[in-house]
Each structure stands twice: as structure tokens, then as C-alpha cells.
Amino acid sequence: MHELSIAYSLVATAEEAALQVGANQVDVVHLRLGQLSGVVKDALLFGYDIATEGTILAGSTLQIEEVPVVVYCAECDAERQLPNIQYFRCPTCGTPTGDIRQGKELELVSLEIADYETTHS
């Protein structure tokens, strides 16, 4: 299950970012996950709970925005969302296309931080 290693990497990146701004606790991690990312959402959520143990992300929630596949159709000269990722054809005109514009994302978008350390100079 490579999702567990992805979860550990995600937690490490989020924890580093949170610590850089003086956070003591992270409440929510926001992630964009494309349909073609190769990551199984449920497995990532399971791995996330394991990966956060003993970190400032422990007890936080992983909010996943699922990103649909969007391709460019040269025939229509337009970007189109695929209704089915089994067929890479323009849903409007039926032209085959492999020009993927969206849907491969695995992107840490933002953190909701509960507590900050304040330092004064």
C-alpha cells in the first residue's frame, strides 16, 4: 500500500510548514487529489491516521478535494471534463485525446492551524 508512504510524506511536509509558522497543532489538512493520481482515497485516509500519530497533526482531519479529469480536444478547441476515465475521447465530439489538463494532482493546498506560538523580538 503505497498510500501509507504518501501519507507519511504528506504529514512530514505539512508538519514542517506548520512548525515554520509556529503552530502547535494542526486541525485540518486540505489536499487536492486527481482521479489519475494513482492514489486510492480511502487507503490514503487510513494511512493518514497512522502517519499523524505522535506529530502536531495527530487528531487532525484530512479533507480531500477530488479533482476530475479534464482533457483538451483539438477538434473542439476546448477543455472538456471526462465523464468516464476509461475512454479518453471528447465527450462532445468523440475525438480521441491524450492531452490531459487536469486530474493528476496530489497537492497539499492548505492547513488549518489551531494554535500558534507567539514570539516577540
Description:
The structure is a single chain. With 121 residues, the chain is an alpha+beta fold. It is built from two helices and six strands. It has a single domain (2-115), classed as hypothetical protein PF0899 fold (2-Layer Sandwich), CATH 3.30.2320.80. The protein has helices spanning 2-20, 41-51, and strands spanning 23-34, 61-67, 70-73, 78-81, 100-102, 106-116. α2 links the parallel β1 (23-34) and β2. The radius of gyration is 18 Å and the shape is elongated. 19% of the residues are buried. The mean pLDDT is 93.
**CATH fold description:** hypothetical protein PF0899 fold
Tell me the span between the first and last alpha carbons.
Answer: 46 Å
Q: Examine the secondary-structure arrangement and name the CATH architecture.
A: 2-Layer Sandwich
List unreliable stretches of 5+ residues: none
- Gyration radius, to the nearest Å? 18 Å
* Global structural class: alpha+beta
Major sheet, described briefly? Answer: 3 strands, mixed
Helical run tally = 2
Q: How many beta strands in the DSSP annotation?
A: 6
- What's the rounded overall pLDDT mean? 93
